[in-house]
């Protein structure tokens, strides 16, 4: 049987909250076996941008990345957040290495084509088949834990701002060709909620038919839809299991003591 590997994406209010983040990193460091961490950081980037006189440009809830915004997210994602996460993991005896998709050509992407909206320097990942799995496998063999910022590149010298959920899903699918991969999306809720205003309304199992039914009814919070779409796509392409849950429960979820929302086909 293939070696197990956990791909874990962290976002939401966990990155923004010192206590939540420290607890998560302590638990992440304690996770046994091979692991990869992917992080976003849009809220922090927006806050820092505002201090620099840059208001975020959002269309339909998505960030438009012009040249100045690309400089901002590169500094915040690839620098401030990524290196702080790495340093804090090193303090917990977890030998982490901060990366973007440009490093070692791990995640090639292309600039999103302009249709009705020009999102600027936003990247769409080429394919899981293009991920540099041998490089990541070599890190695993050395006991090094990759920590990915939400940046990719186009092979022509340009960095691209890329959805962190998509990066996590892409890495999980690519690595599933060599490892038994579990993908976990961590944020500040206990899972996917039937009612965004009721923290106890967790959907513990979500299958495609039920998901479509809830989408048609407009029940699921819109911001959760890309995460769920990535989850189902990952399962269809070879990922063993996908869970969406509370970052505070990561050890319990991985070891089966708590459920979160389990995505199944």
Task: Sum this structure up briefly.
This protein has helices at 13-16, 18-30, 42-51, 67-91, 133-141, 164-175, 208-217, 225-236, 250-254; strands at 4-10, 34-39, 58-59, 62-63, 96-99, 109-111, 123-125, 145-148, 151-153, 159-161, 180-187, 205-206, 241-246, 261-263.
Structure commentary:
With 265 residues, the chain is α/β, with parallel strands linked by helices. The protein has a single domain, classed as Carbamate kinase. Helices cover 38% and strands 21% of the residues. The chain has an eight-stranded mixed beta sheet with strand order 5-8-2-1-11-13-14-12, sandwiched between helices. It has a two-stranded antiparallel ribbon with strand order 3-4. Helix 3 crosses helix 4 (67-91). The mean pLDDT is 92. Pfam families: AA_kinase.
| Secondary structure: number of strands | 14
Total helices: the number is 9
* Whole-angstrom Rg: 17 Å
**Describe the biggest sheet?**
8 strands, mixed
Which terms would index this structure?
265 residues; alpha/beta; Carbamate kinase; 8-stranded mixed β-sheet; two-stranded antiparallel sheet; 9 helices; 14 strands; globular
Secondary structure elements and pairings:
Blueprint: E1 4-10, H1 13-16, H2 18-30, E2 34-39, H3 42-51, E3 58-59, E4 62-63, H4 67-91, E5 96-99, E6 109-111, E7 123-125, H5 133-141, E8 145-148, E9 151-153, E10 159-161, H6 164-175, E11 180-187, E12 205-206, H7 208-217, H8 225-236, E13 241-246, H9 250-254, E14 261-263
Helix pairs in contact: 3-4, 6-8
């Amino acid at each position: 049987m293939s070696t197990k590997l956990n791909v874990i994406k962290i976002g939401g209010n966990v990155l923004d909250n010192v206590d939540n983040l420290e607890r998560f990193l302590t638990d992440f460091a304690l996770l046994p076996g091979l692991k990869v961490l992917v992080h976003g950081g849009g809220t922090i980037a927006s806050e820092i941008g505002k201090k620099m006189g840059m208001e975020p440009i959002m269309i339909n809830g998505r960030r438009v990345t012009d040249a100045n915004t690309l400089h901002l997210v590169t500094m915040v994602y690839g620098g401030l957040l990524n290196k702080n996460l790495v340093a804090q993991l090193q303090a917990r005896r977890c030998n982490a290495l901060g990366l973007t998709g440009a490093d070692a050509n791990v995640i090639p992407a292309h600039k999103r084509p302009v249709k009705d909206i020009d999102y600027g320097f936003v990247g769409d990942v080429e394919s899981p088949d293009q991920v540099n799995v041998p490089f990541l496998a070599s890190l695993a063999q050395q006991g090094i834990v990759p920590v990915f910022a939400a940046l990719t590149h186009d092979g022509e010298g340009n960095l691209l701002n890329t959805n962190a959920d998509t990066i996590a899903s892409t890495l999980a699918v690519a690595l599933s060709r060599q490892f038994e991969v579990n993908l976990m999306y961590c944020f500040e809720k206990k899972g996917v909620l039937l009612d965004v205003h009721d923290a106890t309304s967790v959907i513990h199992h979500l299958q495609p038919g039920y998901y479509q039914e809830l989408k048609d009814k407009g029940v699921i919070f819109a911001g959760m839809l890309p995460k769920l779409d990535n989850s189902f796509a990952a399962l269809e392409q070879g990922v063993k299991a996908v869970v969406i849950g509370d970052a505070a429960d990561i050890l319990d979820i991985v070891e089966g003591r708590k459920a979160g929302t389990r995505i199944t086909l």
